[in-house]
Design brief:
Helix content: 25-40%
Distance between the termini: 15 Å
Strand content: 15-25%
Number of helices: 17
Structural class: alpha/beta
Shape: elongated
Strand order of the largest sheet: 8-9-10-13-14-15-16-18
Number of strands: 18
Radius of gyration: 28 Å
Length: about 525
Amino acid sequence: MAGGLVVALGAGLGVWASSDDDTATPAGSAASRRAAPGTSAAGDSAASAAARAASPTPSRSYALSTTPRTIPAVSAHTPARGPGWKPQSTRRVVVSDAALADEGRLVAGELGLTYAGEKDDVRAGDLRLALNDDEGANPESYTMTVRGGRVTISAPSDAGVFYGTRTLKQEVHAGGTAPEGVVRDRPAKPQRGFTLDIARKHFTAAWIEDRVRELGDLKYNQLGLHFSDDQAFRIESDSHPEIVARQHLTKAEVKRIVDLAASRHITVVPEIDSPGHLGAVLAAHPELQLRNASGVATRGAIDISKDDSASLLDDLLDEYADVFPGAYWHLGGDEYQALTVSSPAASYPQLAAAATARYGSGAGVADLTTGWLNDRADTVRAHDRTMRVWNDGFFRGTSVKPASDLVVAYWTGKEIGARTPTEYLSAGRKVLNYNDEYLYYVLGEPNDFAYPTGQRIYQQWTPRVLRGTTPVAAKYDAQILGGSFSVWCDLANSQTQAQVATGIRMPLRATSQKLWDAGTPPLTWTQFKALADHLG
């Protein structure tokens, strides 16, 4: 199998002569039959004949190239006959636009090429990166042309160019050759994410940076960081240093992660979950802890009837908007324990009173909770972010409606009063797929969770499978923006960082394939696994 994969990656290159000159002319071509300058068809001079004898033109024949094997698979490849392209230290990476300097330097370093910057001339063996003016094209799409011993990657944006370099990097892995022909490629879904719970378990900055590099090569474009929960608050804070755990990421470390991610066209999406899952914050602010009518504290829940609660959260949202400059934000919103009791108004009379005071006599605790999320959304919206909320942060039958621009992060259908994905989609909501049936890697496997396998994702899941194992109707596909594979650290000591990296390796690759192309994969699982092992 491994040998077969090397051949596949080399893509049907036919019979090679001993020459290392990839620009040599194929045998039988018009160029090979053309008479050299200064000679006639009837015969050559003795000097020319001697020169040819000293430097013979190698005779080659080329098989029609085959589609390169990459993860995720490319959308389309037009085969051609030719030598393909291999990196050599004497070859250049050139760019047609200075905006592609970062992409050019990165791929030059990875492939052992020379970065030559912005150039207009053409040399044998060049890898050229270019922006095109393909108006209306998917900005993450790209075209890669391998022809005449050179490679050109062009795209409407630098992100598309970057993804083309990821394809090329995989094609030439371990001495392979980029096959002659044209790759035209684009993702099925615009948001392709990995979410990491760093609140329950501390992950080092170096480990996270390694995942960023891995995600970039797999064409992911989002990294979610869930850094506040009942167990800990894990990023340095200037506005509220009292809430930060001993083991945490400094802002300098976070900046390095954010900058590295940006260089791979990955947006870091922060999550400060509220009004539940705030135990670590409340440990430093017990005066804001939600208590029931008997005075018993409710785990992880902040008292949303108090103005100081809103002020504290808004302080944090404003502070971390400067730390995470990307376009997206996760507001959380799940599992607010005040709404899991049989009578929220009786158990939490202060919340019921606050609801009627603000929204009128018919309002209840769910209205107040919805209003809390809307208020936090107002805070984040001022920083020009697009926001998402867990699906169990949306409630039926409330007079207060969630803000219309909140994206549904659909993760489960097990909550009290669970709503199907179709309810959100038919109402016009946009949805992200976090399906806990396939995409939740929960440390220690509590609450009937089992570690997800790449094979199950690869063979059964698509972005339309939002809940359980049943897909929603195809008419909703455009409303499903993408999805995220997630690591949750409920039993934090169940695995080491290294074990987590190993455990998520194939699930990440399978999820990448399905977010890039939701159709039936071109390879069997056995072939896909062997390809992943070959590529490393």
